[in-house]
Write a structure and sequence with these properties.
The protein has 222 residues and is an alpha/beta fold. It has 7 helices and 7 strands. 31% of the residues lie in helices and 14% in strands. It starts with 16 loop residues before the first strand and ends with a helix.
């Protein structure tokens, strides 16, 4: 029988994947750019496990590089239930992660921190959980990142292709959420769900490369 793991009993940040394991904090709080991975940073591939399928989304490297140049921390926050469901192994996840970073570096961009929540209620063993605080739409990954890097959440923004990405941003207290019409963001249902995120600024972009509104939101909230 699977053990019950109530949300309130799970220490924040427990058993998530964090790279780099030790992160250097900013001297003073700064807004960050939070990004979902699949469908935003890279093109959506269902339960991606092959390096051949890793392709950066349109304008991804340029937008991340622009944030790098402006001193804005870039943080990937990604649900990876494929680990809990055993659609791919931890080695395969890490290989895909390294390939994403390699392609970004080749284009002159870098990510400051990556957090992945592998938990799911349909999983087995280590990553089984009914409602882990770090699995979006819960805000745990953003809160962990804020603590590790000294991020000003109130001035930050999040970009995702699902309503759950934007809901996580709202719950973490970021300034705005941007949905992209890529990956799951192509679904009208996802768009309508995102727009229903009450009392939270939500806008839509074709892809991450449409960055002007993102940086305007960052500068306005900072």
């Amino acid at each position: 029988m699977k053990p019950a793991s109530p949300f309130k009993e799970v220490p924040l940040g427990s058993d998530i994947l964090i790279d780099p394991p030790v992160s250097q904090r900013l001297e003073a709080p700064r807004p960050a750019l939070f990004l979902d991975r699949d469908g935003v940073v890279i093109e959506q591939v269902h339960y991606i496990s092959s390096l051949d399928d890793v392709r950066l989304g349109p304008g991804t490297a340029e937008t991340i590089s622009r944030a790098n140049a402006a001193g804005i921390p870039v943080v990937i926050v990604t649900n990876q239930a494929g680990l809990a469901k055993e659609h791919f192994t931890l080695d395969q996840y890490e290989a895909v992660h390294r390939e994403v970073l390699r392609q970004l570096a080749a284009a002159g961009a870098h990510v400051d921190l990556t957090l992945a929540a592998p938990h799911h209620e349909a999983g087995e063993g280590r990553w089984y959980h009914k409602d882990h605080p770090c699995r979006k739409p819960n805000p745990g990954m953003l809160l962990v990142a804020a603590e590790r890097l000294n991020i000003d959440l109130a001035g930050s923004v999040i970009v995702g292709d699902r309503a759950s990405d934007l809901e996580a941003g709202k719950r973490a207290g970021v300034a705005a959420g941007f949905g992209v019409a890529a990956g799951y963001g192509k679904s009208e249902r996802q768009k309508m769900a995102a727009l229903a995120t009450a009392d939270f600024r939500v806008e839509f972009l074709a892809h991450l490369g449409e960055a002007e509104e993102i940086f305007r939101a960052l500068s306005t909230a900072a």
